[in-house]
Amino acid sequence: MSRELTVDERIKNVAPRLRIEVLDYLERHHHTLCSIVTSGRRTSGIEACHFRMRVFDGLLDTLFHYASAMVAGPYASQRALGAVGSYARGSLMFHGGIDVRLVIDSRDPDVDRFVRAMFRPLWDARVAIDVQVHHAESMIVLAENDWLGVASSLDWRHVAGHEKMSTQLMKTVRDRVLSHDGFDSFLRRLESDGARRYQRFGHSAYQLEPHVKYGAGGMRDLETVLWIAKARWNATGFTDMVRHGLFNPEEISELQLARSHLCRIHNLLHLLSGCRSDRMSFDMQPRLASSLGYGDSAEAVERLMKEHYVHVNRVLRAKERIIDRARSAPSADSIVERLPVGFCVNGDRIAISDVEALAENPILALTIFQFAIARQMRMDSDTLSLLRRALKMRGFQKSVRSIPRSGDAFLSLCCSVQETRLPQDSPLSVMLDVGLLTTFIPEFKALAGRRQRDAYHVLTVDAHCIAAVDLLRKLVRGEKQGSHSLFRRLAMEMARPRIVLLATLLHDVGKAVAEKRHAMRGAPIAFEVAHRLGMSCDDAHEVAHLVRHHKLLNQIASRRDVDDPNVWEEVAQVAHGREGLRELLLLSFVVISSTSPDAMTVWKRQWLERLFVRVDAHLRQRADFATRSAGVHSKIERIVMEQDNDETLRQYLRTMPERYILGQNEAKLVAHAHVAMNRKPQAVRVAVFTAFASSLAEVLVIADDRPGLLAVIAAVFMANQLSVLEAFIHSRKRSPTSVEAVDMFHVVIPEGATIKALRQASFAMEKTISDILAGNTSSEQYVRGQKGAVHAFGRSEIVVDNEASGSWTIVETFSEDRPGLLYTVANAFHDLRLNIQFAKINTEGTRAANVFYVSETDGSKVMDAARIDAIEQRLQEALR
Questions:
Q1: DSSP letters along 813-868, please?
Q2: Is 742 in contact with 672 (CB distance < 8 Å)?
Q3: What angle do CA 195, 201, 205 make, to 5 degrees?
Q4: Which end of the chain is least crowded, N or C, by CB within 10 Å?
Q5: pLDDT tens, residue by residue, 208-228
Q6: 178: Cβ contacts below 8 Å, ≥ 6 apart
Q7: SS in 3 state form for 441-481?
Q8: Continuous segment of H or E residues that includes residue 812
Q9: Element housing 158 (H / E)
């Protein structure tokens, strides 16, 4: 009599036959799946995902019942199988893996046998399936410690077994983990995951080889929208989001189309590559375009990619909007500022109050960006959606453009370097997204989503241009450290930042009309745009000049002998003086660096720096000053002739530094000159002017130059609660025996104050500065009450450079910002008996990056090593 086989033996004996049946089952459905994916239908991606999901639902349900029959026991009825991940969501791609969770009673002794019985046929058939076994408590622990555990509970879809038990368990997990502050923690972890993904796969939706799964606007971002909606509002799908007021029907329709598109592309990538391929690589894009019916030409690929960018941008907007709505409401004691009619503030977010306000006052489309940037506020997602819709309305764009000086206001937004709380700290990206950028620069429309047909770029033309501007903004703020020191310093010292920033934005505008020779073709377009936005003809020509030659330095540095004097002269002939050379170098650096993460190699950077140093020295040594400064002299003579050939004005302008003349508009130069010409000997004059932003003022201080003057001015500003964003320190010879300081500061207007109030206060500031200089009082008396609580600041970075300037020692300080920082640094220089010739102060949020051109009292550079050590030590002590 034969013995009865054990359960393990029966499982082992049946496994080979089951393996064959599994393979036959999957093969039968494989042909149907292929036909769906290649059908060309717009919905083929979703159809394929759902079909494959149903195939595995049937297979797993059958195997579950088979295993339950093979491995019975007292707890057999307490087992349940659930789908998680893409399998649960109905987005299971052609070669996508299957993720399941088996939920059991913790007392079940037969679970290992059950798992072998059910899943061995699949493993033998080499089906990519991931199985995790959990009981109730382990599911809760997993969700508490891993955001993917929370996501699994949100995705859970019952497949087989005890449905009521599994459904109730998932509800218990969600209730336990997402209660109280659990949702906020989950949201933060989702945002951190997004930041890590973007760091790896690119922050922009306009990648030339986009990652369909993990890239910006890809499947994971779409899944994030669904997870947040379910976790926060218990919305069970796209349609349910409308019921909860998260999106309107049109937006949900767009999201569903985006999902269909992504599934369609993703399935085709898997099918065409024969593996789990998630990137739309250059070699795969023509095959995708052909398979999807776009055609076989380069233009067909262009159409495919433009449509792709439309869909992923919709996903990105939806993600940003739902995160914005899901964030906890601000506390009851949040400070709400009074803002102009049409705006409202909710915590750190600014919004346009309603559609009617925007329709009645189109200027709000501009001013909301001004406030968001100046006050470092977020922009409400509903407001972005409102702007997007309004700027598509017939006639609205024309209404915005017709507002007086709107072009200049828009240009100021484009050229703002202040750190913001807008997405990715990129105002231009947001303005492009809502349509404001193309309202004022319609030429940019042709660049939107345009592919770069080379092996170097990783972004589309529009995204590359904006990335270059954003990099330049960071350099101006002094954020780039290490090997970027030269470029950072030059950016911080720019005399004409508007010209360089606009040229950076427009450097590839010629690609809209010609891929080859686009720099030459783009120059006249750039001139037209700059002039239309309110720039003078001279400045517009400078923008066009930079656009025309933005590739010059890189081409020469990488292809020519940078030690050849003939090469120096060749570059010098193109560059508009030393300032123009600096501008070309900065433009070259940010354009190359924004091409791809690895484009600016060490050797390329070193060759650019070497070429710059050689040409800069060559320009300094030119004997013909008139030739070198022709542009400056031409500007001076034009201004003087317009002012009835005023010889006193000519004398003032000729004694001021070139960078001062280049950096100011003509009206401002005349206004400054009148202040200087009307100043009596030994008197102090303080004048207040409007600045480039409504929240700022320009304060001009003119006095007899003397050691410690900057520290005195800084003390008086501190006493008047004026926070300095930028300072430009200049001096000129007023007569053979007297030197006059002409110092210009951009300050933040104190809350509740106005330009008019500052002008009234300027008379008191004049008297205070005069009293301190005369010895009637001291700076410390005015500073003492303003310093606030003692705070220990971290170690600052001090850089002393004698190479970058032929005449001056350059001292850079990088530290945390704090009240009276300018006074502290200026006072330290005074104690060190150093003369300050030029200074650029950059204050952004909690960071201050300052540049000072200094000399010894006899006018020489600081060369002694011990003296340099003393400077570094004194500044470190002052900045602690």
A1: EEEE--TTHHHHHHHHHHHTT-EEEEEEEEEETTEEEEEEEEE-TTS-----HHHH
A2: yes
A3: 85
A4: N
A5: 899 999 999 999 999 999 999
A6: 150, 186, 231
A7: CHHHHHHCCCCCCCCCCCECHHHHHHHHHHHHHHHHCCCCC
A8: strand 809-816
A9: strand 157-161
Give the Cα-Cα-Cα angle 137, 141, 146 (nearest 5 degrees). Answer: 150
What is the pTM for the complete model shown? 0.73
Name residues whose C-beta falls within 8 Å of residue 408's C-beta, 6 or more positions apart in sequence: 533, 534
- Whole-number pLDDT of residue 1: 42
Centre a 10 Å sphere on the Cβ of residue 107 and count the other Cβ atoms it contains: 10
pLDDT digits (tens, 9 = 90+) for 754-813: 899 999 999 999 999 999 999 898 888 877 655 544 445 556 889 898 876 667 888 888
Which one-letter DSSP state was computed for residue 645?
Answer: S
Domain boundaries, given as residue ranges, for the chain: 7-176, 184-326, 336-440, 679-878
Is residue 812 within 8 Å of 818, Cβ to Cβ? no
Encoding tokens for residue 692?
A: 């480039």
What count of other Cβ atoms lies within 10 Å of the Cβ of residue 40? 10
The pLDDT, as a whole number, for residue 726 is 73
Residue 453, token pair as written in the block: 């047909």
Domain 7-176: which CATH class?
alpha beta
The torsion of the CA quartet 329, 334, 335, 336, rounded to 10 degrees, works out to 30
| Cβ atoms of 407 and 437 closer than 8 Å | no
- CA separation for the pair 308, 33 (Å, rounded): 23
Rounded distance between C-alpha atoms, residue 334 and residue 345, angstroms = 10
Q: At what angle do helices 755-774 and 709-719 cross, to 10 degrees?
A: 130
* Geometric angle at alpha carbon 410, from 381 and 579, rounded to 5°: 125
Greatest C-alpha distance within the chain: 127
CATH class for the region spanning 184-326: mainly alpha
CA–CA separation, 206 vs 198, rounded Å? 12
Task: Report the chain's mean pLDDT, rounded to a whole number.
Answer: 86
